[in-house]
UniProtKB/TrEMBL annotation:
Protein's recorded name: Penicillinase repressor
Pfam families according to UniProt: Penicillinase_R (PF03965)
Family under the similarity heading: Belongs to the BlaI transcriptional regulatory family.
SUPFAM superfamilies: Winged helix' DNA-binding domain
Organism: Xylocopilactobacillus apicola
Classification via Gene3D superfamilies: Winged helix-like DNA-binding domain superfamily/Winged helix DNA-binding domain
Length: 123
């Protein structure tokens, strides 16, 4: 799955945050600082990447308006991103840059992993 840009993710966050399909104007209204033209451009790119689809076209204020909804859930997107980067890459971001900082750090990580595994077993 392709990775989204920061602005594309912001548009997807708006769509993921509602159970309704939205127009580019509605998205730009809900996302502060995003104008309608930029919203339209981002939606076109998201449609080309198959992240959104046009569910209908409506007549609004004498013009035709596309109404969009996501094709992928936020959790599925995040899962694919994590699996693409790999767990090793993800975990390495939490490791300190200096060996001096490792004292006790490894033990904390192991304990956290054990605790989470226990929680998952109990659920």
């Amino acid at each position: 799955m392709k990775r989204l840009t920061v602005l594309e993710e912001e548009v997807m966050d708006v769509l993921w945050g509602t159970d309704q399909a939205l127009s580019s104007q509605e998205i730009s209204t809900l996302k502060e600082g995003l104008d309608a033209n930029t919203s339209q451009t981002l939606l076109r790119r998201l449609r080309n990447k198959k992240f959104v689809e046009v569910v209908r076209i409506e007549l609004r204020k004498k013009s035709l308006t596309r109404i969009y909804r996501p094709n992928i859930s936020e959790s599925d997107y995040l899962k694919s991103y994590i699996s693409e980067r790999g767990m090793k890459s993800l975990v390495s971001g939490f490791v300190p840059d200096h060996l001096d900082d490792l004292d006790g750090y490894t033990e904390d990580i192991v304990n956290t992993i054990k605790h989470k595994a226990e929680e998952l077993r109990n659920n």
